[in-house]
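so i finally got all the pieces together for this one. its two components total, 698 residues if u count the protein bits. some of the lines might not be protein, just check the labels. i wanna see the whole assembly predicted at once instead of chain by chain like last time, that was a mess tbh
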Amino acid sequence: MKITLKLYATLGAFLPPGAQRNAIDLDVSDGATIGDVLARQNVPRETCHLILVNGIFSPPANADARELVDGDTLAVWPPVAGG
Amino acid sequence: MGWTGKILRVNLAKGTCTPEDLNMDWAGQYLGQRGLATKYLVEETDPKVDPLSPDNKLIFATGPLTGTCASTGGRYSVITKGPLTGAIACSNSGGYWGAELKFAGWDMIILEGKSKKPVYLCVIDGKAELCDASEIWGKSVWDMDPWIKSRHQDPMMHVAGIGIAGENGVLYSCIINDLHRAAGRSGVGAVMGSKNLKAIAVRGTGGVKVDDFPAFLAATSAAKEVLAANAVTGEGLPTFGTQVLMNVINEAGALPTRNTRDVEFEGAHDISAEAMAAPSGKDGKPNLLANQACFGCTIACGRISKVNEEHYTVQNKPEYWHASGGLEYEAAWALGAATGVSDLDALTYANFICNEQGIDPISFGATLGAAMEMYQDGALTEKDTDGLELKFGSAESLTSAVELTGRAEGFGKELGMGSKKLCDKYGRPELSMTVKGQEFPAYDPRAIQGMGLTYATSNRGACHLRSYTVSSEILGIPEKTDPLVTDGKAGLVKAFQDATAAVDSAGLCIFTTFAWTLEDIAPQIDGALAGKWSVDRLLEIGERVWNLERQYNLQAGFTAKDDTLPKRLLKDAAKTGPAKGLTAGLDKMLPEYYEARGWTKEGVPTNETLARLAL
């Protein structure tokens, strides 16, 4: 299945070549979890503080259990805030 | 202790500067800065006063921790009746000016009346005098600040003042200190201009005494360790600044776009923290050159940026080639997403002009977005705009409009009225994205429901800094709540409002609260001040301040009908993103909020509530 992976701020360094605007489309196996995708890109898990799937919060602690589906957009940030 | 115990009262009509003692009873009840200055304003002015008349007062106030070694302890606030809203205005700024005022031996300056001619106030330690400002009237902040330092032969002075916008009554003009820090919202700069007061220059050589130095040092050191160890304040904010939110809020489908017609902006990435850090231009240098801290701050979230020298805005203006205050999230949103402009250099230039001339980029960008929608709908034509083609996405229109507004020239005068008066004038009041006349900032209440209640009930008009529930609803600090539901938001908003009012009264920056709770703050205040300062006391003060501000607004003529949102947010559902199909659920949250506050169904504090808070 295809998903879109977006890694922001310092996590952008873990995107594969070809990524544009901090995003890339990836082919992943059916049933892949958030944790699988992050492991594939060697993203240190302790740096993943904010995870959104299609814009909706997904608890980082549940990353290994949360399965993605075809067409999902997975966006991940290190610790950030603002205002 | 923590206080100098002195107020400087300046009568601009008489030309007098008079010291008086700080009312320590009030300091015990309202802490300082936002709370204490509000108490003075309430006691000394009629809430129905015309904000731009000599009878309005303008108060510059520090908190008890301003000028101390507490992290971020450099804040001051400007309190007055705001001309943009007609409500109480309280605008908070960092930089170095607030601490310098304390070093000069003053907790607060109260300015009253109107000078017959342009003046600036010069405060050097215990000596204060009004000086002729005729040579700098009509000059920008960036010309005025070095002129004053040069005249007094003192580069260590810190200057807070207005640009051309404030002199000319732009209703969202701000007061700029240290060249690019701003008491930004509600038009406090226009009040300063109405008094013929160009600036306040301060130089202080004293220090700030605290009540129990060993306890204070222990508490502030422990609190700094908390900030350093926290992933957000120790790493995220210094590295990326607030601008990292651009992609976060856009991904969450909560980025108000093109005057809030949309909730996602296709150009968000181009104006984000990531874009600011990417190489650009012929020299390959990024827009962002460095981060910067305000006085005493151990977070250092400020951005120092440069406009690409080849960019059309500055290619023939080398005076803008230097590094200066860069885009923060709210400014980038207003100048960019709200207008549909995704040219980072154009936004950075527009932000420079906002700092140079002293205008609030949030209200300016949001007002321009409303003008663009009216232009697109035909309610405004080029005849009205002096030839400006106000198309969404036009960087040239943005940069021309900000120059005109900063100088209060041509159509810039109309933009300077703010979106409410502008949309009223051209027959499209429903296109003004305001509450109580103030433009709301960078979060769409359909996708972050708590922010809808925040905007509707904010005492200074729509504002994110009165209860930043984004912290909980999007970022999960201190705990995650669902941004798409209204349940529980009344209590959440009240808790944020009360805690924020306490922090704003202390002399600290609200950004500390991404890591600190009041449990970290109370021991610092307890070390600085005499008496016992607990978390419960701070929360009670926060609630007291909130209710005092509310009482002021009610007496100024506001009612529960003003606790609302633009119809677009209440009636038109979000078109895309997680909030697709949702409107702002204010009707569910507002009655719960009034009840949680101890107010009547008409939004009036009950006698029991007032008695409980000793109001």
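The interface with chain A takes residues 230-233, 235-237, 239-245, 247-248, 251-253, 269, 273-274, 328-330, 464-465, 468, 470-471, 474-477, 480, 482-483, 510-511, 514, 577-578 of chain B (CB under 8 Å).
The domain at 444-612 of chain B is CATH 1.10.599.10 (Aldehyde Ferredoxin Oxidoreductase Protein, subunit A; domain 3).
anyway lmk what u think
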